[in-house]
Amino acid sequence: FKLSQTESEVSVTIYAPFARLTDTEINIDENIFIFYSSPYYLRLNLPGKLIDSEKEVHKASYDADQGSYLVTCMKQTFGEFFPGLDMLTDLLTPKGASNVKQPIMEVLSGDFVSNERDDDDELEFFIEQKLPEENTSEGFKYGFANMYNNVFSSLTSELSCLVDIKDPDNKPGCERRKERLQVEEESFDEDHYLADLYDQDVILPSLHFEPMFYKLKKEEVEYSSQDEETLLKLPRKELLIDKGCKSQVFYGLVDIIFSWCYDHRVTVGEKCSESAWNIRKLSAQLSWLNTFSNLKEVVVSSVRRSLIFPLMRNFEMSLLVLQDTIQILSLGRKQVLKCLLEIHSMFNNYEPYYILNQLYITDYCVWIQTIKEEKLKKLTDALKQVSIAKEELGLELPDLENAANMVLQEEKDSQNKDEENLNNIVESLGRVSVIENAFAVSGNDNETEEGLLLPPSSNIICNNSTSIHQEDVDSDDDSSDEDSSDDSDDDDSDDDSSDDSDNEDDDDDSSSTSSASLDSVADSENEGNLILKNETH
């Protein structure tokens, strides 16, 4: 069913595809609306008064294609606004007779009050609230508004993956908090944090993601069909909240919504198989059964845990998640309820997280429908004024980042020095001329005496170079002539051999002279880098 209103009317749409039209009955008695058409029955407790059905001023129609009834009811007071018509569970909850002042349930101890309708006292979110003392005779309490105890004693096998604290039934809230802080400090991974700080390729999509709820206005928020189905399945009850726990319930709401916003951002709006784990792990209330005494404590805990446990750990992203939380709260009860219903659905499908629904989420879904929008707006305004710095997280993040920056600067300086040295080497090599497999041939003895014919460059490297003098060529030719005339004349051979011997002596003198000339060149140009390898003169 759905409800809508104008200044003069309230329209009720009821989906009853298998109803018997001949058995349909509709009764309206001020704020009580009753619909019956076998096998359907609906009773609504409206926040305002309608004209009684006896006056027959109402209209009703049936849409056979949709299988739905549309009932239009007239308001007693024209222009009156009926709040909370979208809070379906609350509309189904009986309110009791308004003329009976005595409670039907007698409270023997504690200062209990009913839900927000009967309590208009102001909540102060800026000052630290004193948590109520725990009654140890009943065991240490936890859950929504500290309403449960001795739940985990029968859940030993499931406890390890449900909450992070051991034996919560026998530990007071202060001890739970102390253990939580110690475990968080031990679990903080400096390398993981620095990796997400300096290498943001993985988290960039989450940083740049803009959730759809930033484009919504409060009146544009709508339930999905699954949301409506879940609302109808919620228990129809009024919650009795200890007056000292009222602010604690609001703080716990911020803790849970922050966890949902983190998962929504890191999955860029798409739930994943680890979404339920993300929400439970980030919430100190859900994972450690912790309570909070002020908004600052909630923000510090949420941001701190977002830098310790999940996959993406970045302070900048945590601040964005905080802004997402503020935006959700600013959209009012309906948007907050949608987030809670989504968490409720996740936990129901993730063993054994359904127990957390029974301890927290189900009651939050019922309670949020009963509070006034003004209280939620005040909570939102208070949260906007809470600032958070890295120094307040207790993880020594500034010192860690300063040390990392020093190491990075040293590495950068060392790299710059290496690059400078490499550039100097390259620059030096740029002034070097390389001659490979080169032949410097002198034309005559005079040229040999002056040295090899070399390029005018000041830096010369000769690899596998050979200096060949003209005399060597002549000597080889004479030797060839000698070999060809050996058989014809021995005397001529002796003369030729004598001549060859003389020529060889001359060649040795020339080679000596050439070597001396090269040494002279090398000595005269100390910085010339003249290098001769595997040379034959």
The helix tally amounts to 18
Distance between the termini: 109 Å
Radius of gyration: 46 Å
The biggest sheet, with number of strands, parallel, antiparallel or mixed sense and barrel status, is: 4 strands, antiparallel
Q: Major sheet: order of its strands?
A: 1-2-7-6
**Judging from the principal axes of the Cα atoms, what is the shape?**
elongated
Counting DSSP E segments of at least 2 residues, the number of strands comes to 16
Strand content: 5-15%
The average pLDDT value, as a whole number, equals 78
- Give the uncertain stretches in residue-range form: 97-120, 438-475, 479-498, 507-537
Instruction: Report the structural category.
Output: alpha+beta
Helix content: 40-55%
Brief summary:
By secondary structure, this protein is an alpha+beta fold. It is 45% helix and 12% strand. The protein contains 18 helices and 16 strands.
